[in-house]
Fold these 2 entries.
Entry 1:
Amino acid sequence: MEQSDVILRLLCPTNEDVAEAVHPTVRTLHHPATGGQSRLAKAALKKVRAELVTINQSAVASLDEGFEETLTLHRLGVFAELGTSFKTTNCIENLNALIGRRTDKIDCWRKSEQKHRWLATVVLEIEPRLRKVREHRHLPRLRAALQSLLKIRSAEVA
């Protein structure tokens, strides 16, 4: 589920007129024109927040909680390339669900090493069923942006 859809559902699940009124502003966040421009995306998100204040305080609280995280891809300058895959949590939720199906019934982990071995085995088992990240060829750009942000030199990364 896309962030814009989540925001729309939080707005007012029963009042479609209100949701539709805010809808264009929410979609602005994901428009290619705001892809590399963190300021435009932040302004659009602030506009959504201002519109939500009078409609749904719960939605405002949710938006405030994840405000900066919502703009991470914009801030790193990779939204246009990787936004399709990473603007939602679907890929990690899928991975967690697949891992859970194989490990949730195990109640007694003797040591954390045992848990790590199980996790490694499960990930190797499910790897062929995982889908590639769309535009995966841009992942090195994401890595470089994160290294730059965190001030990590390439030689330090394994």
Entry 2:
Amino acid sequence: MINYGRSVILIQVMPETSVAETLSHVVNLIQNANTSIEKLKEDISTNKDMLEDALNNDPDYRREFDKAKEAAKVRNELKKRIMLQPELMSINTKMKNQKAHLKELKETLSEYLQEYQRQTGSKTIEGSNGELNQIISSARLVKTSNRPE
């Protein structure tokens, strides 16, 4: 059984089905899902463009949009000026460093969890507070510049 978020796909290897055939079937499922995702992204983009065009062609909307854009520009200029205060610059720098450290800690935790799962085969781990936590793995496709041989 393979669980894909809301969809669960059962893959049962029959005695007459080879591992290669099963793998081929899984590859086919992956390719079909990826094709559907790309098509849906294109459809969403097309619909978004149509909505934006309709809104931008409405004179009342366009006028209010331009006002809001100008107000945002003024707000951003004020924010930049205020953020030049030394104490705010210090807090902002500290916060950026904390966010970078948090990202590193999350990546390290992910590596530890993968290793724990590899060694134990378990998808759950008890937290320091005694609560049982589920280990969730996430995989995604990223285009590469070179093709596999």
